[in-house]
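step=predict obj=NADH-ubiquinone oxidoreductase chain 4 n=215
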Amino acid sequence: RISSVLNPHPPNLMFPIIILALWGILMTSSICLRQTDLKALIAYSSVSHMGLVIAAIIVQTPWGLTGAMTLMIAHGLTSSALFALANTNYERTHTRTLLLVRGLQLVFPLMSTWWLLINLTNMAMPPTINLLGELFIISTLFNWSTPTIIITGIGTLITATYSLYMFLMTQRGSISTQFRLLPPTHTREHLTLTLHLLPLGLLIMKPALISGLFT
């Protein structure tokens, strides 16, 4: 909101904020790998993605602003879907600890499909709009300073790692005996997740709808 007021950014303001944003990407992504609480893992994932957005906005190029706008909307839908999935687990198991809620694929196979699709979306897999936003931002930062490709590349790799970690910890393995009698999932839950994923898939056909005035 205030980026237009600070345009053009003075260099002594740009460098510290971009460095902190890029460092934050690595730190918060690494924290995700150590999380045992499902909700905290999803929350730190959002912080990591917003580090990319902050860096892109501060650079103040058309590609950066387009990527920031796209990724904010894309991750808003993705993160909301992840929180919805975490809530469906919590309503049935009454715990968010990853070690206790393993093996849910055996009980909720359709919900496991949603977990896989949304985790792939969080990793910015095609054909979702997340990929477009991240490509715009990584290209912008690379043009601004070549070494940033190392940090953004490592951040992307860690994002893929903790997304797979989240999926495997919640869906694979042997289920605890205390969770063998769980209530089934509801149509409203599947509808909610469909309404999250459908825009992410369809917006790639016309990304100008959400990329602002900078395309």
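step=describe
The two ends are 19 Å apart (CA to CA).
step=end
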